[in-house]
Amino acid sequence: MKNRIPICFLLVAISVPLLSCSGAHTGENYVLISNNIKVPYWQSAAAGFAQSADQLKVGYAFQGPATYDPGAEREAIESAIQKKPAGILISVADANLLKDSIDHAIQAGIPVITIDSDAPASKRLTFIGTNNYQAGLSGGKRLVEELKGKGNVAVFTMPSQPNLGERLRGYKDALENYPGIKIAGVVDINGDPRIAFDTANALLASDKKQHIDAFVCLEALSGKEIANVLNSNGVKGRLVIAMDTDPETLDWIQKGVIAATVSQKPYTMAFVGLKMLDDLHHEQVQKLDSDWAHDSFAPVPAFVDTGSAVVDKKNVEAFIAATKSLSGK
User: Fold this and answer.
1) Coil, helix or strand for 48?
2) How far is CA 138 from the centre of its chain?
3) Closest to 24 in 3D by CA, of 284, 286, 271
4) How many of the other CB atoms lie within 10 Å of CB of 71?
5) Which residues contact residue 189 at a Cβ distance below 8 angstroms, ignoring those fewer than 6 apart?
6) Buried/exposed code over 98-114 (b: 16+ C-beta within 10 A; e: otherwise)
7) Domains contained in the chain, CATH given
8) Which of 48, 65, 171, 217 can bridge 140 by disulfide, Cβ–Cβ 3.0-4.6 Å?
9) Going by C-beta distance under 8 Å and a sequence separation of 6 or more, which residues neighbour residue 63?
10) What is the radius of gyration, based on Cα positions, of the chain?
């Protein structure tokens, strides 16, 4: 009997946390907010969010505007705050515009983590995403290699997004020692693929004034539009470096119109982000507005780099096969 008492006590001690864990997620809901829910990139993130929620047995919602609209994204986070979710994961279209809304959520006791595009001046807890400077640097190195040190480049971007600014900085640093390669213009597509399409046509029309040798895309929308313009006009010998891996972009790589694209991991960002939010919710962190970035004992890292890679004709087939294996499509 003396030997049995400690064993029974141990069994009880073990069973208590197990029982408490089994009901720990009852009624919890988390929200993922993006700046354009119809884009394949964000559909991939939504899949990662759903998979993570399924594993944790929690409720979830994927919200945001169906077109690029920072104002509508701000309305989406304010609406989510009213419902008091257990946590919010958000990709920031405009850091200045969304700062106060993120801070509002934190003040309401709702943990907020940014993914893909950050709002570093806000009180968000951490950022999960690509090291955008390194992504730009990788693209820039490929640009130098393809142009062989000489050519005019048109850059397509959305300057209001800090992550795209970091990518451009990476490209510029990659070109620093190659004075023969010049950025001839930077185009703000403002989240509208039609602007990319029209601008590419206009650049080709003014080719005699300024020949554009390469088109660099810092976001996911413009690469396929430029490829379509080049293909429709029968234009050869122009370099296109895209961003992200939606099916159309990969198809243009297979056809040889887009030379390469820089891939990110939106699925991973959302998958990991929800697990981190869930941990924060269960830790019941008392002061969400603490300066975690400079706290040696912070419950979250300052930044989680989910990585990036260059996809081109050499590895695009393997990339597509891996994507199908993961998605089942």
Assistant:
1) helix
2) 17
3) 284
4) 12
5) 156, 157, 158, 195, 196, 199, 219, 221, 222
6) bbebbbbbbeeebbbbb
7) 26-130+265-306 (3.40.50.2300), 132-263 (3.40.50.2300)
8) 171
9) 31, 32, 33, 37, 76, 79, 80
10) 23
pLDDT, residue 209, reads: 87
Quote the tokens at residue 80: 């989510």
Element (H, E) at 185: strand 181-188
pTM for this predicted structure? 0.79
**Could you tell me the pLDDT band of residue 160, with boundaries at 50, 70 and 90?**
confident
Give the pLDDT score at 207. 87
Quick one: three-class SS letters along 103-137? HHHHHCCCCEEEECCCCCCCCCCEEEECCHHHHHH
Q: pLDDT band at residue 214, thresholds of 50, 70 and 90? A: very high
Beta carbons of 143 and 171 less than 8 angstroms apart = yes
- Say how far apart CA 293 and CA 312 lie, in whole Å: 36
Q: Tell me: the pLDDT tens digits for 17-46?
A: 333 333 456 679 999 999 889 888 899 999
Q: 43-47, 152-156, 322-326: lowest mean pLDDT where?
A: 322-326
Q: What dihedral do alpha carbons 241, 242, 243, 244 form, nearest 10°?
A: -120
Strand order in the sheet with 112-115: 59-63, 29-33, 87-90, 112-115, 126-129, 303-305
The yes-or-no verdict on residue 292 having pLDDT over 90 is no
Q: What is the mean pLDDT of residues 111-134?
A: 95
